[in-house]
Each structure stands twice: as structure tokens, then as C-alpha cells.
Amino acid sequence: MTGIVQTILRYFAEMTGNYAYSIIIFTVLLRLAMSPLSVSQTRTMEKQKKIQPLVDEIQKKYKGQSEEINRRVMEVYKQNNFNILAGCLPALLTLPIMLVFYKGMQDMNFMNLLASEGISMKFLWIADIMKKPLIAIPANIADIGAWLVLIREMLMPIITAVTTYMTFAQTGQPTSSESGNSMAMFKWLWPLMFGYFAIVSAQSLVIYWVTFNVINLIQQWVIMKFIVRPATK
User: Fold this and answer.
1) Domains in the chain, number
2) Which of 40, 58, 169, 187 gets the highest tally of CB atoms within 10 A of its CB?
3) Contacting residues for 81 by C-beta, under 8 A, at least 6 apart
4) Are 41 and 91 a contacting pair, CB within 8 Å?
């Protein structure tokens, strides 16, 4: 599988002359290919939102009676033809795909091959997407140029954190009252974690993740507006 990924990445890199463009094109195509899984997952999430008040009521009424809660919740799921695993399956299926893509994209032998073919590793203000951002606090606080460089290097980590937050806020699972605080914490912790990863990782991976987030946001909006919500009317 890694070889297939690298063949496709190399094809787009040779076509565009730029490895960043290759990553973006491949990520867009990969996300579009996963659209059926996204539709299935979104439908499951919407159905869960509708039955969540019933689940909350059961948990409140039978507080401390875990067996009774589980039994009655399963009855609600059955009555509404809801399978909680249907929402997890798409995510589980996409994970191996993402790992293969990441492995193929970051392989150094593959990178050296592209470099030997004259493929550019530049993207916008990034001189080399295979390197980490150069994050360093200026020694002289009055050095405006150094601060501008720091801001430039922090742009991708910031964009990563923001798009991750937007994705989480848009597609976040409905939660019961008992787990609401935990989910609220993750809503902020997740973007901060990926923002940190964007600082310590090669910027090629950051480009992939930002592209994935942006396409996911657009795709989710289209699915909700034109597929899921019209079907529920």
C-alpha cells in the first residue's frame, strides 16, 4: 500500500513540479473517496442527537442503576434503529488509510528521490516542507524582524489548531450531561495538541492535516445541507 501511495504522490509531484501541491491534491482526492463513509457517519451522529434527550432522561431517572440504564438505553437504540457502532466504523476504517498515507509521504528515501528529480519542496512562505518550523523567541525583544519571522513560522501551527477546533466543533458527537464537561475539555485540548504536533513535525505533515481539515469542513457542510437534513424533512 505504501508503494501505491508513493506512486500516486510522485505522479502528482511530477505533474505539478511541487511536492506540497502533490500532497494537497492527493489529500483532496482521498477525502472525496471517503465521502460515503462520511455520509454514513454523519447520519449516525444526527440520529444520535435526536435520541440523546431520551438517553439523558434515562440516566437521570435511573441514576446509580447501571444495569437498568444500559437495558433501557439499548431499548431506545433498538426502537430507533440506531447502531452506535455505525458511527465508529467509518473512523476505524479511515485510520489505516491515514497511517499508510503518512508513512508513504514521510519516507526519506522517497523524499530524496523526489529531490533528485528536481521536485520543489517550497510552499508559500515555507522554504522546505520537509523541515520543522523554526520556532525561537527573539533574544532582542526590540528586533522587529525576528518577531516577524516567529509569526511567520507560527502561522501553520495556528492554522492547524484553528481548523482542528472548527472540525471538532462542527462534527462533535452529542454528549450526555454526565460527559459534557469532558467533551468540552477535549474540544480545546484536541486543537492545542495538534497545534503542538505542527510545531514539532515536518511541515509536509502539517500541510496534509490542514488540507484534510479544510476539505472535511466543506464536505461536512455539503453533506448536512444537501444530503442528511433534506432526507429528515
Assistant:
1) 1
2) 58
3) none
4) yes
